[in-house]
Amino acid sequence: MKLLLVSDTHGSTRELEAVLKRYANEVDTVLHLGDFEDDLTRYQRDYPQLKMMTVLGNCDFDPFKLTEQILQINGVSILMTHGHIRSVKTDLTRLMRYAREKQVNACFFGHTHQAFMEWNDEIFFMNPGSLGDPRYGNGATFGLVEISETGEITGEVVDYE
User: Fold this and answer.
1) DSSP character string of 69-114
2) Largest CB tally within 10 Å, which of 85, 88, 91, 153?
3) What region does 139 belong to: left with phi over 0, alpha with psi -120 to 50, or beta?
4) Looking at residue 120, which CATH number applies to its domain?
C-alpha cells in the first residue's frame, strides 16, 4: 500500500493538483493532514480510484470532521493528526508520548510547515511539510510512504519541483 501525504495547503491547490496528477496511478491513498483539508476533497471526483482521508487543522472548521484519527493499513496502526493540539511547533515530546500511549506504529502530522521524518521508539513519524504554503526558507514538500503486506514501513519526503 502506497500513501501520499500532504499538509498545510492553505488554499494553494496548484501544487496539490500537479502532485495528484503525477502520483494518481502509483498511490492507493492520499492523506491530508490539515489546514485547508477540503483542498484535497475537491479532487475526489477527478480521482475516484484514490482513497482520500483528511483531518482538521487549526485553520479548518467543520464540527462533523475529526482533528485526529487512527487508521489500520496492512496490520499497521497509524495516528493521523495535524499536530496543533499536541503543540508540535514547540517540540515533539507530547506527540511522541501520545503516539506511544495509543500504541501506533506510525504517526503522520503537519502544522509546522517543515518536513520531518524519524523513527523514535519503534514508531515512524513523518511530517510531509507544506505543499501549498512553505515557510522558513523551505520549499514545498510532500511525503510518500509505503506499507508492505508484512507491515514494513518506508517513507521519503519529496521536494515539489
Assistant:
1) EEEEETTEEEEEE-SGGGTTTT-SHHHHHHHHHTT-SEEE--SSSS
2) 88
3) beta
4) 3.60.21.10
- Phi, psi angles (nearest 5°) of residue 81: -150, 160
Whether 37 shows a pLDDT value over 90: the answer reads yes
Total residue length of the chain: 161
Q: Residue 85 and residue 124: Cα distance in Å, rounded?
A: 19
Tell me the residue range of the domain where 133 lies.
2-159
Amino acid at 29: T
Can you tell me whether residue 152 is helix, strand or coil? coil
Residue 121, φ and ψ in degrees, nearest 5: 55, 45
- Three-state DSSP class for residue 6: strand
How many domains are there within the chain? 1
Quickly tell me which residue has 467543520 as its cell. Answer: 62
Average of per-residue pLDDT across 104-115: 97
Rg (alpha carbons) of the chain, rounded to whole number: 14
Local structure of 157: helix, strand or coil: strand
Residue type, 44: Q
CA dihedral for 23, 26, 27, 28, sign (positive or negative): positive
Cβ contact 75:151 at 8 Å: yes
